[in-house]
Amino acid sequence: YIFYVLYANLDEYNPKETYDVKLTKLDEWVLSRLHSTTKKVRTALDDYQFTNAAREIAALVDEVSNWYVRRSRNRFWESGMNAEKAAAYETLHEVLVTISKLIAPFTPFVAEDIHLNLEGSSVHLADYPVVN
């Protein structure tokens, strides 16, 4: 989260603007992982398996920070805003916003702080993530 906020502010990235993006395999992987985790968390919560839901979220956060961000750093460090860099920002923004929604039942104050900073609105007024 801090990595994203730091570099997005440096690059004056605005998630509300439209950018030409070129998703890489890494972007597609993390979005796929996000969707599968969302589905598992919803299923676990529906079955009152709160510990399993929390473990799924923790595993996702670990993979995002230790795989996606580490392997995407060079894209964030490039000068200017090209299609790959914009895709990295958009992907990481989507992942962080969704994670803030997923963690809201477990850590409401942390989720609120993250969501307010990224979206400008309360996480508790947002819909819980669903997978189509």
From TrEMBL:
<dbReference type="GO" id="GO:0000049">
    <property type="term" value="F:tRNA binding"/>
</dbReference>
<dbReference type="InterPro" id="IPR013155">
    <property type="entry name" value="M/V/L/I-tRNA-synth_anticd-bd"/>
</dbReference>
<keyword id="KW-0436">Ligase</keyword>
<dbReference type="InterPro" id="IPR023586">
    <property type="entry name" value="Ile-tRNA-ligase_type2"/>
</dbReference>
<dbReference type="GO" id="GO:0006428">
    <property type="term" value="P:isoleucyl-tRNA aminoacylation"/>
</dbReference>
<dbReference type="GO" id="GO:0005524">
    <property type="term" value="F:ATP binding"/>
</dbReference>
<keyword id="KW-0067">ATP-binding</keyword>
<keyword id="KW-0547">Nucleotide-binding</keyword>
<keyword id="KW-0963">Cytoplasm</keyword>
<dbReference type="InterPro" id="IPR033709">
    <property type="entry name" value="Anticodon_Ile_ABEc"/>
</dbReference>
<dbReference type="Pfam" id="PF08264">
    <property type="entry name" value="Anticodon_1"/>
</dbReference>
<keyword id="KW-0648">Protein biosynthesis</keyword>
<dbReference type="InterPro" id="IPR009080">
    <property type="entry name" value="tRNAsynth_Ia_anticodon-bd"/>
</dbReference>
<feature type="domain" description="Methionyl/Valyl/Leucyl/Isoleucyl-tRNA synthetase anticodon-binding">
    <location>
        <begin position="27"/>
        <end position="130"/>
    </location>
</feature>
<dbReference type="GO" id="GO:0004822">
    <property type="term" value="F:isoleucine-tRNA ligase activity"/>
</dbReference>
<protein>
    <submittedName>
        <fullName>Isoleucine--tRNA ligase</fullName>
    </submittedName>
</protein>
<keyword id="KW-0030">Aminoacyl-tRNA synthetase</keyword>
